[in-house]
Amino acid sequence: MATTVILGAGGRLGAALAREWGAAGEDVIAFNRTELPLGNADRLEQVLASLEFDCLVNCAALTNVDYCEAHPEEAFKINGEAANEVALLCEQKGARCLHISTDYVFDGHASAPYKETDPPLPISVYGESKRLGEEAVLAAGSRHWAVRVSWVFGPDRPSFVDQVISRALVEERVDAVNDKWSAPTYALDTAVLLRPFLRRVEGGGLLHLSNTGACTWQEYGQFA
Questions:
Q1: Which of 153, 181, 113 is CA-nearest to residue 11?
Q2: How far is it, in rounded angstroms, from Cα 208 to Cα 119?
Q3: 185, 211 Cβ separation under 8 angstroms
Q4: What band does 218 get if pLDDT is binned at 50, 70 and 90?
Q5: Residue of 104, 114, 126, 220 marked active site
Q6: 168 located within any domain
Q7: Is 104 a catalytic residue?
Q8: 161-207 confidence digits (pLDDT tens)
Q9: Structural domain that includes position 81
């Protein structure tokens, strides 16, 4: 039976994937970071080895940029080394790994949308750790995908949109930078767009997946 494992199901995107795919009839086994922490390699191997699945989506990551700067060793362990371990375990089981990555592998200063062929240029520990995770996943097997998403928002966990709205209700002025561009991405749309890559799309590689359009952080806040 076709079964999909989702890691990081307590997060904004992972929760949306687990719920939407489950409602669509997908057989889903979902773990949040408490149930299956990526930092525990032995536990990770034990649990995944005991399961029968043909696809795994790794949404789990250390995503707080400031925290990663202050704790680089932990960031590289979770976002880099653990991503590699997950992909290798998938390869051993003959399962496809879809690794969720980020636009932070770029510097964010481009005025046009980034392409998959653009070279990464991370400027933070978070971005560099995610870049290493991508490379490890793609090196583990030819059927695996590294899927870059950006500025994800949705109903399952507060995002920048929610923060702006909350602050605007009590503050006269809400500031946001206007020199970094990206594409806001709705988690429920991502669930629809990503599902074909579980089994129907052949091959593997890098994929940029977002809603249409781009804006700065400032414009994003103004739209909210």
A1: 153
A2: 13
A3: yes
A4: low
A5: 126
A6: no
A7: no
A8: 555 555 544 555 555 445 565 678 889 999 999 999 999 999 999 99
A9: 3-157+183-211
**Structural domain tally of the chain?**
1
Establish if 132 belongs to a structural domain.
yes
Residues 6+ away with beta carbon under 8 Å from 6: 14, 17, 18, 21, 28, 29, 30, 31, 56, 57, 59
**pLDDT per position as a tens digit, 104-122:** 999 878 777 889 999 999 9
> Partners of 206 in the beta sheet?
146
Task: Report the percentage of the chain scoring pLDDT > 90.
Answer: 73
Look at residue 216 and tell me if it is in a domain: no
Q: Is residue 28 part of a domain?
A: yes
Residue 136, domain CATH? 3.40.50.720
| In the block, residue with structure tokens 């950006």 | 150
